[in-house]
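User: I'm new to structure prediction. If I give you an amino acid sequence, what do you actually give back? Let's try with this one:
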Amino acid sequence: MRPGDRVRVRVLNPPGHNRAPSYVRGRTGVVVRSVGDGRFPDEAAAVGADARREEIWTVAFAATELWGPDAGPNDRVHVDLFETYLERA
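Assistant: Good question. You get back a string of structure tokens that encode the predicted 3D arrangement of the chain. For your 89 residues, that looks like this:
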């Protein structure tokens, strides 16, 4: 993955906590930048294991993609997401 890539947030609903906001699941955006890597805690939290490290990406979503035609046509929402949550669009 790299800046400029179009991505879709995977629709994942595992038991327990998920750090991908529900309002972006299934939505398409554009990768803005790498934030670096961080500890991916979703899997580890359930079993008490050490979280593996994973790349985090800032993804820009058009407000209209998230909230429909009533949203500002030039507005964007940036969300930091673990790579596991993303697939190429």
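You can read the tokens as a compact description of the fold. Here is one thing that stands out. The radius of gyration is 14 Å.
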